[in-house]
Write a structure and sequence with these properties.
The structure is a single chain. This protein has 221 residues and is an all-alpha fold. It is built from 4 helices and no strands. α1 packs antiparallel against α2 and α1 runs parallel beside α3. It is rod-shaped and about 155 Å long.
């Protein structure tokens, strides 16, 4: 397993355990103390998301056998983190409901007769705009994560193509070496054949000269 991944995993597990403890503590608080605790938890969730992304990038850069095991573990961490996020939403919703109820009670006690239909409409419109803004932020975050995953996939493809090119280059070098060796062998064989031709020619010439000499001496006598 990658030591880098293990380091990220250790940091995430410590942070996750801390967030779970803070959620439990926040559920027992009220008012400003609860708001402060929820704010701390949200900041920790951003850090946890960052560790998850780092682990994901590191896992995808490893060998397939190791990558599959780490990605399965990462899915469990994502599920745990989503559970914490849901708990934070529940705490935030409860806190918001309590704050809204208190505001409405205070407003009603201060000036119950001045609340008009127009004010209620504006309040609903403001709430709707806030909800739409929240949805747009979530959508932007999802798009960013999808883009990040696409970038990781492209990097993996480029790495595989680079490995293929390196392998093809090594194969071409091997063929080049074999051609050079074959050329040397053919050159040596050609030289040997030329040398053998000269030797055979010399032997034949010597035999012919010897025959001529023998015939000459026989005819002379």
């Amino acid at each position: 397993m990658s030591q880098v991944f293990e380091g990220y995993e250790r940091q995430y597990c410590e942070l996750s355990a801390n967030l779970s403890r803070k959620c439990t503590a926040a559920s027992l608080l009220n008012g400003e103390q609860k708001k402060q605790k929820v704010s701390e938890i949200k900041a920790g969730l951003d850090d946890a998301d960052a560790w998850i992304r780092k682990m994901d990038l590191e896992a995808r850069s490893l060998q397939p056998s190791v990558k599959a095991m780490l990605l399965a573990k990462l899915r469990e961490y994502k599920t745990d983190l989503n559970n914490v996020k849901n708990e934070v939403k529940r705490l935030t919703s409860a806190n918001t409901n309590l704050a809204a109820r208190d505001d409405l009670l205070e407003s009603g006690m201060a000036d119950a007769m001045t609340v008009s239909a127009d004010q209620k409409t504006r309040l609903l419109m403001s709430t709707e705009r806030l909800n739409q803004s929240s949805d747009r932020i979530k959508e932007s975050r999802r798009t960013m994560l999808e883009t990040e995953e696409l970038g990781v996939s492209i990097l993996q493809d480029l790495h595989q193509q680079r490995q293929s090119l390196l392998h093809a280059n090594n194969t071409l070098h091997g063929v080049d070496d074999n051609i050079s060796k074959s050329k040397k062998i053919l050159t040596a064989m050609s030289r040997r054949m030329s040398r053998n031709k000269w030797i055979i020619g010399s032997v034949i010439a010597a035999l012919v000269l010897a025959i001529i000499l023998i015939l000459y001496f026989k005819l002379a006598h």
